[in-house]
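Whiteboard transcription, Tuesday session. T.W. wrote the structure tokens on the left side:
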């Protein structure tokens, strides 16, 4: 049994390298067989919306939309409830497969047996 990996990404276009690193680590862990949950918080919240990841460009980095789609297919992608509300993002706005959840769910995932967490 692989240990779950929970990643919280706070950076978006404001810090593109940190943002891309979080998505890259998540997708790489998925490819290695890990159970991955990526949480979009702060400026990364915008990547829960259609077209936003497609607009993100960082030289020498995998396309963010491809990494996001891997998470939607093989892992879990969650948008922080408070971050969504601060940006007027609702359930009807997000890409299919993105869930909106809050701190209690994040803490529950972190406290799960053998979970490992990273913050970017």
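and on the right, the sequence the group agreed on:
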């Amino acid at each position: 049994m692989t240990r779950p990996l929970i990643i919280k990404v706070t950076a978006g276009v404001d810090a593109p390298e940190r943002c891309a690193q979080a998505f890259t680590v998540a997708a790489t862990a998925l490819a290695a067989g890990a159970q991955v949950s990526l949480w979009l918080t702060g400026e990364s919240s915008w990547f829960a919306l259609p077209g936003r990841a497609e607009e993100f460009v960082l030289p020498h980095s995998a396309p963010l939309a491809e990494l996001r789609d891997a998470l939607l297919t093989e892992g879990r992608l969650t948008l922080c409830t408070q971050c969504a509300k601060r940006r007027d993002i609702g359930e009807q706005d997000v890409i299919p497969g993105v869930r909106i959840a809050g701190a209690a769910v994040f803490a529950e995932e972190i406290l799960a047996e053998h979970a490992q967490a990273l913050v970017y």
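Someone added at the bottom: Residues 85 and 100 are 10 Å apart (CA to CA).
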